[in-house]
Design goal:
Layout lengths: L1 H17 L3 H11 L1 H19 L1 H29 L4 H4 L18 H17 L4 H23 L5 H36 L1
Helix pairs in contact: 2-7, 3-4, 4-6, 4-8, 6-7, 6-8, 7-8
């Protein structure tokens, strides 16, 4: 386990100290702070509803449920369980680009939440028309940028972010699977009995 932590710290310092550019600093802070980049999520919700109508409302509700599950697992289960100190408080050399309260690092909630959004969008839109596929690609790219920004600004190790992305994707898949099961076994079965 110690080898994994050392590798995580080494990759963190590579990304946080060496692979940086002053022109990217503001963008990474922007992506890392939901109060600044939250409008991207509002545009995503609007796209769902405009493209799919009432089905879009259902997709939006499933997306919110996936985000809730991902956030609970990352913040409510993993962070208290692992109690990993953030790199900005643990490592001597770290570029911290935003203010950060003392809280646990593993797993990244930002990465989990945006991956849950992108995962749900991919489930419902990746096989659609060209505009749907472009929308999916943009949201997946946005989620990956948000995840990367958490390392860039100095508040998460790469392992925290990878775990967050996995949690988000698994949450999206689990919510969709449960929804599909209910539709197939409860809704459709109930309609057939009538």
């Amino acid at each position: 386990m110690d080898v994994l932590q050392q590798a995580d710290a080494w990759i963190f310092q590579l990304l946080n100290l060496n692979l940086v550019h002053p022109a990217a600093d503001d963008l990474m802070v922007f992506l890392s702070r939901p109060e600044l980049s939250g409008h991207m999520l509002l545009l995503a919700a609007l796209f769902m509803i405009v493209r799919r109508g009432w089905q879009g409302v259902t997709i939006l509700l499933l997306t919110l449920l996936a985000v809730g599950c991902a956030d609970f697992v990352a913040s409510g289960v993993f962070k208290p369980l692992f109690q990993r100190t953030r790199p900005c408080f643990e490592l001597e050399e770290c570029r911290l680009l935003l203010s950060q309260v003392r809280s646990y690092s593993f797993a990244s909630s930002h990465a989990a939440n945006t991956a849950a959004i992108a995962g749900t969008i991919a489930i419902f839109f990746s096989r659609g028309e060209t505009v749907d596929r472009v929308y999916t690609a943009v949201m997946v790219f946005y989620a990956l940028l948000v995840a990367y920004s958490r390392v860039y600004v100095g508040v998460h190790y790469p392992g925290d972010v990878i775990a967050g992305v996995v949690i988000g994707v698994v949450s999206a898949g689990t919510v969709y699977t449960c929804f599909a099961w209910v539709v197939k076994n409860v809704v459709h079965t109930g309609m057939l009995k009538r």
